[in-house]
Amino acid sequence: xxxxxxxxxxxxxxxxxxxxxxxxxxxxxxxxxxxxxxxxxxxxxxxxxxxxxxxxxxxxxxxxxxxxxxxxxxxxxxxxxxxxxxxxxxxxxxxxxxxxxxxxxxxxxxxxxxxxxxxxxxxxxxxxxxxxxxxxxxxxxxxxxxxxxxxx
Length: 152
Known about the structure:
Blueprint (H helix, E strand, L loop, with lengths): L4 H18 L3 E5 L2 E5 L3 E4 L5 E5 L1 H18 L5 H29 L5 E5 L5 H29 L1
Antiparallel strand pairs: 1-2, 1-5, 2-3, 3-4
């Protein structure tokens, strides 16, 4: 389990997505007020972290994707299930961008909006790359096992 490279890739994907839960994803300014969109709330960052609304769908999506990447490591004996879970995690990771794009287009309705993406916006892309690398390694292991079964 630990000695496999896909374990490292899956752990890194879980870690990067976990980091996204802690950081502001997007900042925008309206009429001189600065707001930060984190994974679980929209806050007015100038007025003692005044919460505008709670953003639970994005937090749940990021949390589930991070947890799924970690849980996938535990299925090291069942490579086919591990590949399926990794593919499902691809969909969840892309869903994070869909939800961020939804919030972006909803905010574009406001005319005087200055939108600034922060570094955590790239975290799902990095996690997606780690998930792709993990999938390739899991598939490679499965092919090796299948070839050994043919020799017998």
